[in-house]
Amino acid sequence: MPEPVKTRRRYTSSIRRGEAQRSILSAASRLFAERGYLATSIDDIAREATVARPTVFAAAGSKSAILKEVVDIALAGDDELVPVRDRSWFRDMIDEPDPRRMLRLHARNIRMIGERAGDVYCAVESAAAADPGVAALWEALQRQRLAGSRMVAEALVRKTALRDTYDVDTVTDVLWSIGTPMVYRKTVRERGWAPDRYESWIADSLCRLFLLD
Predict the structure, then answer these.
(1) Which positions ≥6 away from 60 have C-beta within 8 Å?
(2) Is residue 41 in a domain?
(3) Angle (deg, nearest 10), helices 53-60 and 42-49
């Protein structure tokens, strides 16, 4: 009896660079979230994206470069070269004249980022202790979040008087602490909160903490 013919998984080698990069980044995002960064290899990413191994390097770079790109896309929402501070959803919140409405828009933004970035954010943190390159990325992410939190705090202080215990520095620290995507992941993914409940909790908490009435 003839042996069955073994077929190898087909890999895409003729797709355009942009398409290959998107496929690779999407595959890497799934694998980093499911397995973690350290447990995911370039070969794993190539198989998941159905491209050849050299295509991964040619289209998306090293594994650490892929991780940074995955995080950037998760935080911003797409691969457009527009900083978060210039995104319409961020500007709408900063420019909102009503402080209560501003904080509710900020809670909406925190939820959106948590939905997109919570899993990969945890992957970065867990790998940072074992990989110096990932550790540098993690530290950069914390600095960026702190700078963004300060922008929100300064905008809020310009709009209204706050409770006596809160100044710009303290508001910045609170926003930085409560706004991490990991809080979203723990409350929604691990504790089973509905995303709407999470968003309302963030908004209500910030309004009660900061606003006088």
Answers:
(1) 20, 21, 24, 25, 28, 66, 69
(2) yes
(3) 90
Helices assigned H by DSSP within 4-98:
17-35, 42-49, 53-60, 63-76, 88-95
pTM: 0.83
Q: Give the pair of three-digit tokens for residue 199.
A: 């968003």
Separation CA 32–CA 63 (nearest Å): 11
Scan for tokens 């900061």, then name that residue.
210
45 neighbors 24 (Cβ within 8 angstroms): yes
Assign residue 47 the CATH number of its domain: 1.10.10.60
Give the whole-angstrom CA distance, residue 42 versus residue 24. 10
Kindly report, residue by residue over 16-30, the tens digit of the pLDDT. Answer: 448 899 999 999 999
Cα separation, 210 vs 36, whole angstroms: 37
Each residue of 121-154: pLDDT tens digit?
889 999 999 999 999 999 999 999 999 999 999 9
Residues 21, 15: Cα–Cα separation, whole Å: 10
Q: Angle CA(198)–CA(201)–CA(206) in degrees, nearest 5?
A: 130
**Residues 153/159, Cβ–Cβ less than 8 Å:** no
Q: Which amino acid is at 99?
A: P
Q: How many domains does the chain have?
A: 2
